[in-house]
Amino acid sequence: MIRSLHRRHALSLMGGTAAALAIPLAAQGRSEDWAALAADVKAEFKWSWDHYVARAWGKDEINPVSGGQQHFFIEGHDLGLSLVEALDTLWLMELDDEFQAGVDWVKANLDFDVDGDIQVFEANIRLVGGLLSAHLCSGDPVLLAKAKELADRLMKAFDASPHGLPYRYVNLRTGAVRDPETNLAEIGTYIAEFGVLSRLTGDARYHDAARRAMLHTLNMRSDLGLMAANIHAETGQFISRNASIDVYADSFYEYLWDAWELFGDEQLKRAAQECCAAMVAHQGKRYDGRLWFPMVDYETGAVTGTSQTVLGGYLAGLLGQVGMKAEGDDFLATYTAMQERYVIIPESIDVTTAGPRTKRTGLRPEYADACLNLWLGDRDDRYRALAAIHWRNMKATSKAAYGYTSLTDITTRPMTQGDNCPGYWWSEQMKYYWLLFAEPKRVDLGQLVLSTEANVLRGLRT
Pairing between strand 307-309 and 117-119? Predict the structure, then answer.
């Protein structure tokens, strides 16, 4: 059973006022005012956006403690990452002036003719996806053209491989590729964005390239139904034996299901169900009564590592989506226990002790993601209440002078803040909270499909 946050335990961890912020009214036996909570999320997003505009406009990321900025993709060159990631969230929250200002910046300033290497996976989920969702929100053809231009440059990484497995990096200007030693996530997280791009442009190349890469690795599953997480783009062979649900692999599995929801791909739907069943059967392990999914040998199922990252939280929601709701609830309970114990879920956890392997954390959204996907399945408000804890805990610990920041030590009291707001904060958890707490006018929740970066690719009401 998913446990609620115990007030006494939270007080001992956080102390005084901060702990009170972390307790949703629902957990205190009273009814939550969801509209008020949604309004709070929107107000904090607008406040953060105003600081980004004032101090980091057009830059990749803001440093919310110092008020500075930093690059993400290419040293010395900005691609407006946080701005692009924020666009559809601004639109969903009906912050129309802010949305239009961001669109105007993209149209006037975003240029991909850069002599620099870009990480193909990150560029796709963050920039191609962000531009596509903004286009779907607004209908602006320039946004679609920008998404297509970037995708064309990224396609060079697929074309260079004899197996259609993209190299990790491509030079945006020259098309030169590097780093063939890659992983499931970085070769298999394209079909949502590339498939939508194919649908919008009538050019099947993007969808077909993404699907080919996924099928290559699916065809290499072991007798247990597992895949190793690391693969070589040139040889097409696995270069590790570790099957992982999170690092190196997570979004590959999400996109199997997305291919079904977006395009009716029955083959990839079956693959999603089979992969999840194999994970539960051969990776799912219990330590002190809690369900974890540590790395295992993909052919034998023997445990090869005892770490689990916060990234793995997505799987709770995916299990619910593929029809394994009980297992999804069981795994969510594990992360809920970590939220109760540490207030902010550790970036990496030793499954044998449930102790943190790292003290830092990067404003991670996966727990809220899982709560949203499970809530969409049955609209049980317990998931909203758990996400409300997640929201209030973040607000109590990560709010800085100029926005929300990562943490460098979650074990100190107060927690020690870093000085970076990752681009995904603008696209992911703030959107998850809004969709959970608001009665969003601009999206049909029954038709909603989000990318791994939470870009809305279906369900918008325009």
Answer: unpaired
Overall average pLDDT of the 373-392 stretch:
98
* Number of structural domains in the chain: 1
How far is Cα 204 from Cα 454, in angstroms, rounded to an integer?
A: 23
Instruction: Write out the DSSP string of 380-392.
Output: -HHHHHHHHHHHH
pLDDT on residue 22:
42
Amino acid at 433: Y
Pairing verdict, β 399-400 and 403-404: antiparallel
CB atoms near residue 43 (< 10 Å):
11
Structure tokens at 54: 């004032």
Contact at 8 Å (CB) between 276 and 253?
A: yes
On whether residue 131 sits in a domain, the answer given is yes
Cα 338 to chain centroid distance, Å, stands at 19
**The pLDDT of residue 163:** 98
Establish if 176 belongs to a structural domain.
Answer: yes
**Tokens representing residue 70 in the block:** 């930093």
Selection from 241, 219, 218, 216 nearest residue 228 by Cα = 241
Q: Determine the distance from the C-alpha atom of residue 263 to the mean position of all C-alpha atoms in its chain, rounded to a whole number.
A: 21
Across the chain, which distance is largest between two alpha carbons, in Å? 60
- Sign, CA torsion 307/313/315/316: positive
Is the predicted pLDDT of residue 113 greater than 50, yes or no? yes
Of 383, 368, 222, the residue nearest 301 (C-alpha): 222
pLDDT for 30 equals 55
Return d(Cα 156, Cα 456) in angstroms, integer.
26
Residue 7 inside a domain? The answer is no
pLDDT of 284-296, one tens digit each?
999 999 999 999 9
Mean pLDDT of the chain: 94
Q: Which residue shows structure tokens 């407006």?
A: 80
> Does residue 103 surpass a pLDDT of 50?
yes
Q: Which residues, 6+ apart, have CB-to-CB distance to 144 below 8 Å?
A: 131, 132, 135, 200, 201
pLDDT tens figures, 206-230: 999 999 999 999 999 999 999 999 9
Distance, CA of 160 to CA of 265 (rounded, Å): 26
Across 104-121, average pLDDT: 98
Q: Which residues span the domain enclosing 176?
A: 112-274
Helices (H) and strands (E) in the chain, counts: 19, 20
Q: Is 116 exposed, middle or buried (0-12, 13-18, 19+ CB in 10 A)?
A: middle
Q: Are 312 and 370 in contact (CB under 8 A)?
A: no
Q: In this structure, is residue 260 part of a structural domain?
A: yes
Q: What's the average model confidence in pLDDT over 143-159?
A: 98
CATH number for the domain spanning 258: value is 1.50.10.10
